[in-house]
Amino acid sequence: MQTETFERLESNVRTYSRSFPVVFTKAKGACLTDENGREYIDFLAGAGTLNYGHNNPHLKQALVDYIATDGVVHGLDMWTTAKRDYFEAFEELILKPRNLDYKIQLPGPTGTNAVEAAIRLARKVKQRHNIVAFTNGFHGVTMGALATTGNRKFRENTGVPTLGGSFVPFDGYMGDSTDTLDYFEKLLGDKSGGLDVPAAVIVETVQGEGGINVSGLEWLKRLESICHANDILLIIDDIQAGCGRTGKFFSFEHAGVVPDMVTNSKSLSGLGLPFAHVLMRPELDQWKPGQYNGTFRGFSYAMVTATAALKHYWSDDAFELEVQRKGKIVEERFQKLAAMLSKAGMPASERGRGLMRGIDVETGDIADKITGKAFENGLIIETSGQDGEVVKCLCSLTITDDELQKGLDILEAAVKDVAGAKATADA
Amino acid sequence: MQTETFERLESNVRTYSRSFPVVFTKAKGACLTDENGREYIDFLAGAGTLNYGHNNPHLKQALVDYIATDGVVHGLDMWTTAKRDYFEAFEELILKPRNLDYKIQLPGPTGTNAVEAAIRLARKVKQRHNIVAFTNGFHGVTMGALATTGNRKFRENTGVPTLGGSFVPFDGYMGDSTDTLDYFEKLLGDKSGGLDVPAAVIVETVQGEGGINVSGLEWLKRLESICHANDILLIIDDIQAGCGRTGKFFSFEHAGVVPDMVTNSKSLSGLGLPFAHVLMRPELDQWKPGQYNGTFRGFSYAMVTATAALKHYWSDDAFELEVQRKGKIVEERFQKLAAMLSKAGMPASERGRGLMRGIDVETGDIADKITGKAFENGLIIETSGQDGEVVKCLCSLTITDDELQKGLDILEAAVKDVAGAKATADA
Amino acid sequence: MQTETFERLESNVRTYSRSFPVVFTKAKGACLTDENGREYIDFLAGAGTLNYGHNNPHLKQALVDYIATDGVVHGLDMWTTAKRDYFEAFEELILKPRNLDYKIQLPGPTGTNAVEAAIRLARKVKQRHNIVAFTNGFHGVTMGALATTGNRKFRENTGVPTLGGSFVPFDGYMGDSTDTLDYFEKLLGDKSGGLDVPAAVIVETVQGEGGINVSGLEWLKRLESICHANDILLIIDDIQAGCGRTGKFFSFEHAGVVPDMVTNSKSLSGLGLPFAHVLMRPELDQWKPGQYNGTFRGFSYAMVTATAALKHYWSDDAFELEVQRKGKIVEERFQKLAAMLSKAGMPASERGRGLMRGIDVETGDIADKITGKAFENGLIIETSGQDGEVVKCLCSLTITDDELQKGLDILEAAVKDVAGAKATADA
Amino acid sequence: MQTETFERLESNVRTYSRSFPVVFTKAKGACLTDENGREYIDFLAGAGTLNYGHNNPHLKQALVDYIATDGVVHGLDMWTTAKRDYFEAFEELILKPRNLDYKIQLPGPTGTNAVEAAIRLARKVKQRHNIVAFTNGFHGVTMGALATTGNRKFRENTGVPTLGGSFVPFDGYMGDSTDTLDYFEKLLGDKSGGLDVPAAVIVETVQGEGGINVSGLEWLKRLESICHANDILLIIDDIQAGCGRTGKFFSFEHAGVVPDMVTNSKSLSGLGLPFAHVLMRPELDQWKPGQYNGTFRGFSYAMVTATAALKHYWSDDAFELEVQRKGKIVEERFQKLAAMLSKAGMPASERGRGLMRGIDVETGDIADKITGKAFENGLIIETSGQDGEVVKCLCSLTITDDELQKGLDILEAAVKDVAGAKATADA
Questions:
Q1: By residue range, what is the domain housing residue C338?
Q2: Which of B315, C104, C427, D330 has the smallest number of CB atoms closer than 10 Å to its CB?
Q3: Which of residues C265, C284, C314 is at a domain's end?
Q4: Which ipTM value was assigned to this complex?
Q5: Which chain C residue has its CA at the smallest distance from D271's CA?
Q6: Which residues of A touch B267 (CB under 8 A)?
């Protein structure tokens, strides 16, 4: 495989190609194929962007059909039939069945753009500058979003400090015996605690980049009620956890909360095309025309495939149930692997919701060994968490049971290998 | 046309659909077609995103072929054949013939993302926080980029002030007799002038949103030499003016300057797909792995169409010459229209470079009347400038002479209409 | 008493004159006298500025003598004999006996100025922007210091957010069973917790404005060791708690910690004259000449009285022991008052160190009733805490036992009155 | 003279003691005396703090009398007779005769504190974050004030960028043929010029630290009218130029403008005691009680001497006329010196208003040589300007003609010396 071109021309900022230093060429369903024809089971799936698998045939067909008609590709924020179809499908298949009443904003087609739009609108509506985010939260790296993203890797290279964000501890951050919302609520009520009353709270129900940290459903309900009691907007960033990843379309459905705003992106287009939207309660839609813009906010291809995805997968609850079923499979296998590692002297634990799952092996070093070994054997799987200590499964939701088991087998072999090496070293 | 769905569900932030309140369905070359089958000549072209026209057949074919092979759609920043092809074509067809030596960063696929990456890298490299931008400059609306964007419409709705940007007057801002760089140079050398020594200057050679303000070629050369003399990086934001719009691939080629960094987006993919890159001199590529990221930084479709556009249009200078030729046509017609308006008591003037041209009619009101009348007669054309006072032509570069003349005829009729109404009113 | 002048000309920002709406004219020791000749015991003492009492005769004499010689009054940062005397006395009487090795910076003569200087120097030395402060901390209201001050009253009227400060919970903030430094230490070690690695921690060992919150001595030691382990500077803001208030010259002596920097002001001049200094370990003195300035940084009168105070009160440990003895008296009486209130159904508790003591009565309303009643009876006493819920004793350290008991008696009568009213209301 | 104590203990930040490395002990009128008994004529006068001379006998006497009565020294913002006397004198002697209607805020007793209060109030009243300041303006170094101070020396050592200030060119900055307010007015009216509509403009009528830059009276009037037309508050920072320095009590009286707010400090107390106030039009006094504070805002000594200064010097216009007369003397001598230097090949020019005057010798190097030589001969005189290129006379306003001439003679000898050395070197 010729990689010299990349080494010569591509910025050092590249990262995934360091873990998987091959040149990919094709992809289908749960598999990626490199230039030499080698196939890999993909448990990364575009970091949660390919919930319906690579080149999903239903979505691809819808796109090919659209292209054939010379449909508008790029429409700024003009009205197009593609956009109308998307709005109608989203309303009929997602909002109405869930009794949700939202207006839709299409910002630039990236998650960070949606977050910037949401927090800017929150500040405008509430006339307060502060946005509360949570430890280990990730909401994007453009400067506005970065104020709510905890990672030093990004925060320390900005040249100017971020402005207008405060962090409070996520569920479980202070151990099992402490409800972190006690601390948040105390700070909110404290006139000299240093917490500026926020316009909004932004939260992921399951933190993806932060290490598959799962918020409790009661914790989320309480967070919602604290927000209500204090006239603070609740923004759920469902960019990674949404679109079915946790076993429901929106990850917050499990808890029965109704956010004031929602951000979606990643798997929203279904086919991996750049796309994002912000949902907001109608009374919050206080934008004036043109107050937020972006060249690619009318990318029709993404609307076409998003519409196809909604129609194919979200007309009834079959897909949700299927995701939940597969989630159980991963959960059980991950518990087994965690036990295996713990037994070998490497304490580990499983966690997650739906098909967003991880094994916390406590150090990035062990996690890297496992994922490195897995890659050698044909599995693409990545880590997350502040130290990269969580081996993370974000496989496509449409993965077949065979592919899933095959991927899990490769992972188990890698775990055994690492556990065995440890046993040998200890001996 | 059914527009009720939009009115019910779409955020008030929508803007172009207010100027053009129809539902578009198809597009080809220089034309857009609405749901009723009415055709419009398009002088907006995705605000500079569709330099090669809607559904350009060469680019579309490349995309359809790629889709047929189940090529990787979304690859994060992994290596793919699509990316290698793009890098190689860009190097061979663009960089080498121009003696340019740049490394390439693919950030999130929007212009604002590219700008955020460029200014963050500049700050990191130079260890200074300030970025100098110019009056009427536009570089995006996410918070980092917004520090360099002059528009109050965006700046006043952020809830927190922007941080780390300073504005100095663009070429011509203080009248013909003042070289605005005298002021900039004085501030740079002044230890108590209030200008923090910047890491970088960011500039558009022709300001698109700012009103088709054209910087002089000598002014640009002097700006480059001031930057060199003061150890300041020169970033040219070629998002709107690049990709052939001014008659050269890069707009700065006219002046013979060599920026330290370049941002491209908009027409970079050619087909209107979200795409952006940052070019940087190799020694500036001081990113550490993963210090800047974004889910959609590996959107292969855009690379495939971008490669096709490069190969089809940039293998020789024929396309450039063609753009320059058409630019002359628009220039002459616009001069005539400006004279017509001036004669009718509405002072107007023409300006621009290549096919990025405008008529400054001095008030947004007159400009809106002209573009409104033009739309009635089948021409999509927009305004820019701080008050929307510049009627702007950003037609596709591939427009046929017939289409171009037809569009210009519609515009001329609109101008006559507005001039006539004024004459009647004055009488 | 003529107050109309004030009502006509003085800004609404005035505050203490609302609690004590009389016109004061003279003051001596622990007493203030109003225009009608009425005397008040002063338990406020300039909010901690008059540790040696009003018009302390030793200090006053030194000043009068100095004035008589036409000594330099205002010397910018030129060298004067007054400054040399001050430096020598401070070195001999304070630094050497405590084995402290500090250089001295004289910033503008206010506490907030000293804090601005200290945190700016910390950022410069460590090349990091963040400063960690604690819930309920107060370090001044100019914008730099305000980033470390928790009070919303000040933070919400700035028009721009503060920049470069983060808050973590002070000792005891999360209840007795939680060591808040566990949380701080976890955040420090967490690469995605949202806490930017700070240049410095700034802390009051006893929070004055925050409500007489006393940090544990072990907690302080641990804070010091966390700072050392993480290459973070420890700044102790001893503006209110220093100069003997807690029974030692520096409040941190109790814990045996050695801060990297110390800020003093308030009682530093002794006579109530504006004065402040920053102490810093010599290797931290990385200021370049003139990098921080202020017109009144060479106010000799304050140096003269400060020197006199040092010589008179700090040549041996007698004064410290005396403060400790009186602190015990207040402690016991306050415990009694707290018990009295609790018994009457108004839960209350005593806390403090040395002569910096308070009764937390849990609501500002009760506290205001007590202090209002006390004022009627000739005692000036104020509240602190986020809701003004802590009745606070900051009486001069030189108060006589008679005056102290008289003040405490007035306070006890007020407490009884409020407790009785409650009993009546409940009945 | 023993200076070792300073060298050992004093922070490197010290600056004036580097120009004048002697130890001063006494001061009277226009003279300073060092420890060896050597006298120096003082043309620095506390950087404008000692307008009435060192140890002015009238002011000193008032202070001594006050001390003798055990008057309140430090009163927080409680009401005192000293404060009432000050308010009444200020109203009767300053405000009423000038038809000015202001309320008075006493912030912390430093200039930077007054500026912080004024700009915070402006932001609060106008609900806008931006404050416009001018090139070479100096308004203090605490972080809020620093946003309006142009000096890189201070701005580059803050660790965080300043927030909420924008700079526009001061009168004359772009040469004689350009009215810099044309540029400011254009920016104000430009919706995409990058200038956020400011809450206030802050300006010195004569820039002291910036280099004795004198704004034209017409320019000031126009600035006032631009502010009015755009609903922007005009804050005149009269900290250095006020209290008679320019020949009127307020420097803006010359132009006949009426600012919305005024800041005074430096010579306000008269004797060199720390003191500052903010004046504001009554309808702007929208502070809530306690929204801005500071321990030393009730420093009675300063009010006592300030009252004495008002009564002694400002009961009629004799003092103003005297200052104007002496200003003429300095002006003429400085013109002569400038001519002398210019003739010797060192281009120089004179400028100033009243007794705030300078000779611009174009380089800091020449200026340092002149002031260094003058110091050798017994004259204390400093430089200002971005490069220290302006030799500055801020002698006390009460200086005798003899002392003034003696000081000017020393300066002339120094100039001759430097001019002569140049002639020799050139030969």
A1: 3-55+317-426
A2: C427
A3: C314
A4: 0.97
A5: C73
A6: none
